[in-house]
Amino acid sequence: MAEQREMKEKNPWHSAVVILITVLGITAIVALVTTAVLQNKPLLQKYKYGIVLDAGSSHTAVYIYEWPAEKENDTGRVHQKHICKVLGPGISSYSHSPELAGESLRTCMKQAERFVPIRRHRETPLYLGATAGMRLLSMENQNVCDQVLGSVEKVLRSTPFSYQGARIISGQEEGAFGWITINYLDDRLKQGSGTTGALDLGGASTQITFATNQEGMGESAENTVTFRLYGNDYILYTHSFLCYGKDQALKKTLAQQAQVGNSSVLDPCFNEGYSVDRNYSSVYSSPCIMAGKPLETGYSFTHIGKGDASQCQQAIRRIFTNPGCNFSRCSFNGVYQPPIQGPFGAFSAFYFVMNFLNLTSDSLEGTREKMERYCSTPWHQIKQQHPGVKEKYLAEYCFSGNYILSLLTDGYKFTSETWSTITFIKKISGSDAGWTLGYMLNLTNMIPAEAPDSPPLPHAGYVTLLLFISLVIFVIFLFSVKSLWPRCTTQTQII
Ligand SMILES: Nc1ncnc2c1ncn2[C@@H]1O[C@H](COP(=O)(O)OP(=O)(O)OP(=O)(O)O)[C@@H](O)[C@H]1O
Question: What are the TM regions of this chain, as residue ranges (predicted)?
């Protein structure tokens, strides 16, 4: 007591200093916590947009993509905001009235104006990529093909968006950008982990693309695409088979069966009881059909279903030619293909068909069995079982399922073992699997060649660490000034 009194007398300010330090310390902590909380509060997110039109052989679809304006180079951040399916056929079907090709896009483009905020319209890039239908039209008639492209260009230029061009993309681009899309959406590119191969089945062409090691790729330069993405080098094998999309393959198979020139064609790829009259010209008019319409036949024939999956596969096998392989190994039609390296994602018609047939998770043997059963089911029963399904698709599922089986096994050489590496997919993280997203990411330079430098700590981690260190310093400080605190003793003093 005497000591304390003595101390107080020596330093009359000491309790005032301690109080001041404590108040300042508490104020500092409150300020730090407030800063940390405010700093971590999410900012009002601003978005950017991009629009890509997929002008396919069977139809056109308008994809609207959205991504946060701040982090354009972060993988997995662009997502599909909306898809509008254009009514009517693909633009290549407007060869008799090209001006209608552009008109067909107007409704979806109006929708796009509503989905993209008005303040972003002018800066939103707009692309149109045409695929196999237009590739075929350009082979048939370049002049009409240009007119169709001119017609869609006119309409797209009249929209408020930043029009970047309408062009026919190559089969190689279609394959490679499909591969980029699925690996970007899976977040595999930034991680630099193993990638997924892409199998795309369209109406008029089909693409196979997968990463492979360099060995043997020198064999065929036209099947090689290289990318440097996020600091990783990729060597891709890619091939697009024009005329081997689902619709053209069906025409090829039917044309080959109709070559005999009878008034009716008994087709194992259609269910028993199916019967439709068809014009020869509807089958033989495609540039994919080399043979001409059989001579000395009528105008039309009756297409009759026989419903036999094994015979159907035999008929399909005949559309894969075998002119000999000039490489170490080939898929079909003499096209080079290195050993397949999975896993694979199979999309577009691969998914539509296998999903309908409930075959997305079956073994190869199980798939064959189910196809036998499906094809041998009478047509009237199929129609009864699936009243809501478009009749054209329904009639073709026996052919389509067998075509997929044959393309993957006889064509691409998948086996019972490698079959299980295929996943049939429609969407990944809400965005459709297809070439459009990869195309836009490439044209807008949204995937950098080198991995961007990132701070050692994320923002929230940095603020938390700062707060923690400050608290530790403050506690140490309090302990070090403890000696200045007035000592209170509870011991009763015996005088
Ligand atoms: N639900 C469905 N069931 C069966 N087939 C379908 C279904 N939806 C679409 N298809 C068909 O699947 C095929 C592929 O469609 P997709 O839109 O991917 O091709 P595309 O872009 O028109 O063709 P390409 O890429 O060859 O130009 C087309 O023949 C289309 O008619």
Answer: 12-38, 460-481
Q: Show binding-site residues for ATP.
A: 203-207
Q: Is the CB of 109 under 6 A from ligand 1?
A: no
Distance (Å, rounded) from C-alpha 93 to C-alpha 148? 9
Question: Which residue CA neighbors atom 15 of ligand 1 most closely?
Answer: 202
DSSP 386-435: -TTS-HHHHHHHHHHHHHHHHIIIIIT---HHHHTTEEE-SEETTEE-SH
Q: What are phi and psi of 349, to 5 degrees?
A: -65, -25
CA–CA gap between residue 391 and residue 413 (Å, rounded): 32
Tell me the pLDDT tens digit for each residue of 51-98.
Answer: 999 999 999 999 999 999 876 556 568 999 999 999 999 999 999 999
Q: Name the maximum alpha-carbon separation found in the chain.
A: 137
Q: 3-class SS at 301?
A: strand
Residue of 57, 85, 356 to test ligand 1 pocket, by largest number of atoms within 8 Å of CB: 57
CA of 203 to the centre of ligand 1 (A): 5
Task: Give 129-141 pLDDT, tens digit per residue.
Answer: 999 999 999 999 9
Beta strand spans in 280-400 (E): 300-305, 344-348
Catalytic residues: 174
